[in-house]
Amino acid sequence: MRRFVFCLMLATAAVVTAGICRDPICEFTFVIRRARSMTYRGSNGKLYDVALNAPQLQIVENSYHKRDDDDVMIGTFVNSSDVITVDGFRRNLIVVNDAFPGPTIEVMEGAQVVVRVINDLLTEGITLHWHGMHVINTPWMDGVGYVTQCPIPAHQSFTYRFKASPYGTHWWHDHFSNTRIDGLFGLFVVHRKLPSLPEFLVSVQDWYHIPAGDGELVSPNRMSFSGTGETYMSEDHRDMAVDRSEVTMRRYDGSLINGRGRWNDLPLPLTTFKVKTGQNYRFRVTNTGSERGFILSVDRHSVRVVALEGVDMAPIPVDLFMIFPGESVDFEMATNMSGGQYWMRAVTLRHGKGRDPQPDDVINGVKAIVRYEDVTGDAEPTSRPRDCTSAQPCRVFNCPFGGYPDSEHKICLKVSDAHIDVASDDFRTKYGLTEQPAVEHFLNWNGIVGSSVNARRFVFPKIPFFFDYLDHIVSCDDQKCDTKGCKCTHILDLPYNETIQMVFTNYNLEHADDIEHHPIHMHGHNFAVLAMGYPTYNHTTGRLMSVNPDVACSNKLCSKASWRDGKTPFLNLINPPVRDVVIVPAGGYVVVRFRATNPGFWIFHCHLEMHMMEGMAMVLRVAAGRVPRLPRNFPTCNVFDWTSDEFEGYQKSSNSTPLQTTRSLQSTNLHWQNSRYFI
Ligand SMILES: *[C@@H]1O[C@H](CO)[C@@H](O)[C@H](O)[C@H]1NC(C)=O
Ligand SMILES: *[C@@H]1O[C@H](CO)[C@@H](O)[C@H](O)[C@H]1NC(C)=O
Ligand SMILES: *[C@@H]1O[C@H](CO)[C@@H](O)[C@H](O)[C@H]1NC(C)=O
Ligand SMILES: *[C@@H]1O[C@H](CO)[C@@H](O)[C@H](O)[C@H]1NC(C)=O
Ligand SMILES: [Cu+2]
After folding, report:
1. For a substitution probing ligand 4, which of 358, 538, 546 has the most ligand atoms within 8 Å of its CB?
2. DSSP letter string, 324-361
3. Domain-wise residue ranges, the chain
4. 623: which residues sit within 8 A by CB, 6+ positions away?
5. 448 C-alpha to center of ligand 5: Å?
6. CA–CA separation, 352 vs 366, rounded Å?
7. What is the CATH number of domain 199-417?
8. What integer pLDDT is reported at residue 7 of this predicted model?
9. Taking every annotated instance into account, which residue ranges of this chain make up the domain Plastocyanin-like (predicted)?
């Protein structure tokens, strides 16, 4: 089976619309199963390990297949397109329709998208979330385990059906546990009109050599039963960014562009984008990774950021831009070189290690190749990144901090420096920019009491919110939460069609050293980004000095806050950018506004996988009275319990009464079964 990357490699300069479904109903079937990288299935049906014998892949011995057994396959060379190479490390991963990453969906805005999901995993339940889709009128199609649906059990099937809206650069991924980081994801583009430029889709991600389940098991920060901490670095060894924020606790293993990278510089195939001179190209980039943001650039080319999550912005010329997990950034690039080949670079924010990070020569990242037509042969680019100088400093978009040390000659642009390309009256009404917000919520996202929002670590309900969930959640004890922190099912009510202003803060006054930026993702809505406030930083070292003074915390955990002296900072109410993920700077804030027009239960969370799993999430209960009814036969999942008397009653009566269904047992004993949704 061909992998997704090859579609990209074959894409040429012609405007590629072949992969776009233009029908009013677009149907897909996803068969999800586990596989292993760096293995090859022989024509004899056996699965063999392969290794690089540069430049080819060769079948090698392992404990099951030995040359001594006269296995004639050992030592033969295989075509790399028949092997999921990834970065050359052999591990258990997830394939969808035999592809890693999973298939891309490309449809026109407004199409009905149908995805039949067949869960052929051995044991795990899954759900698929259509990241960026608002699933209007069908909020239970949002694919969030125990929020909008029961997980799809192993060996079962579930069909998602929703309207492709809004248009943009999106993706889809598991949203029950953390299997998206094993490969259960793919890209998802919704076109408003057929592309006028040739396009490339780019997935950039960090990649770990320990499967997701094992990674979770050893995590020292789980909601319960903290693990032993292998693959988590002590503070002295953690990757730190230039402002001294922590990149992540997780040990770096590697990164991939469209599923390809190079562990230990193994000369494995990289993703190649074939271009022609004198064209304009659109690259739609999504960070599909779990923990690390990336800084992207293309050697010898300057790029224009033209869209965020695929929503068009006034173009911003930059040399580099950052992209954090969950975010999408589209850029355009003119191929104005006469020929040759150039590196596309994606490097993490690592600047050094430990609490006092000094720059070293470790560069964590991955490359892809931009290759002009004239290039033949196998040689790779020798291009170098542009030097940033005082005469010609580099412009960097989407910084989570105020700036770099002056000596680096890099100018930071905030996401709020972007502008929507057409700021119509409709646009301003849609995002509530023409009126005072009905409510304003301050939400503090950080690790102040473990990963939390306003010191509340999210506990998932035991049944999805579309059922009678109230007896199956852990209510928040506000007094306790605001003084000591807590674990609870944190719900925020938003009234229908009101203008909501939110201030995402990231203030950790308790541990001023513990700083980290969080990409916050809202389901069901996107929002206008009206302002971003950075902390102050030292222009010599680049390090964070003090938190932004605009916000005043009323308690130590900063779960209650307000504008200092009632003074709101400058808000762009004219032409702000719109997105559904935004990075919240450590020691700073972001102000967003939207209208709560989509009734449902929407999870709202940090898109760093570990933080999400550890409780940095909450649920927006939008227009509770207007939430649409579930469709017939929507699957239920139960908390089953019965008393010993009931049990004994069954023992006694079982000889005399005919077989009862469990349904009649449950409906007499568990009151939540009386839900109007129960079928
Ligand atoms: C490897 O497979 C690809 C895709 O099927 C094919 O185009 C290519 O010619 C093959 N290479 C070799 C050396 O057989
Ligand atoms: C290509 O365009 C970039 C950005 O506008 C410019 O800096 C560079 O000099 C151009 N290169 C050539 C060969 O024209
Ligand atoms: C929401 O409110 C706005 C502003 O009052 C109004 O223009 C719009 O029609 C309302 N939308 C709905 C769906 O009620
Ligand atoms: C910035 O850091 C440098 C080097 O550590 C130090 O000398 C200087 O005093 C700092 N500046 C401020 C304003 O703290
Ligand atoms: Cu986070």
Report:
1. 538
2. -TT-EEEEEEE--SSS-EEEEEEEES--EESSS----S
3. 25-191, 199-417, 425-626, 644-674
4. 494, 495, 496, 497, 596, 599
5. 12
6. 17
7. 2.60.40.420
8. 30
9. 84-193, 232-354, 481-623
Q: Count, in order, helices (H) and strands (E) of the chain.
A: 7, 45
**pLDDT, tens digit, 9 for 90 and up, residues 61-90:** 988 888 877 788 999 999 999 999 999 999
What CA–CA distances, in Å, run from 134 to 63, 370, 599?
A: 50, 34, 10
DSSP 492: E
Cα–Cα distance, 158 to 136 (Å, whole number) = 19
Q: Whose CA is nearest to atom 5 of ligand 4?
A: 541
CB of 80 within 6 A of ligand 1: the answer is no
Instruction: Tell me yes or no: is domain 425-626 CATH 2.40.128.20.
Output: no
Tell how far the Cα of 294 is from the centroid of ligand 2, in angstroms: 24
Integer Cα distance of 241 and 134 in angstroms? 34
pLDDT digits (tens, 9 = 90+) for 137-148: 999 999 999 999
Distance CA 366, CA 255 (A): 6
Question: Which ranges constitute the DSSP H helices of 391-473?
Answer: 425-430
Q: Which residue, 83, 95, 344, is CA-closest to 200?
A: 344
Residues of the chain with pLDDT under 70: 1-18, 654-679
Domain 25-191 CATH (choose: 2.60.40.420, 3.30.2310.20, 3.40.50.970, 3.30.70.360): 2.60.40.420
Residue 426 CA, ligand 3 centroid: distance in Å: 11
pLDDT of residue 653: 78
Residues with CB under 5 A from ligand 5 (ion): 518, 606, 608, 611
Partner residues linked to 113 by β-bridges: 26, 162
What whole-number distance in Å separates Cα of residue 514 and Cα of residue 482?
19
- The structure tokens listed for 89 are 């490390």
pLDDT attached to residue 659: 53
- Which residues fall within 8 angstroms of residue 130, CB to CB, at 6 or more apart? 113, 141, 142, 143, 160, 162, 170, 172, 188
Which pLDDT does position 467 carry in this prediction?
94
244, 540, 545: which to mutate for ligand 4, most atoms within 8 A of CB? 540
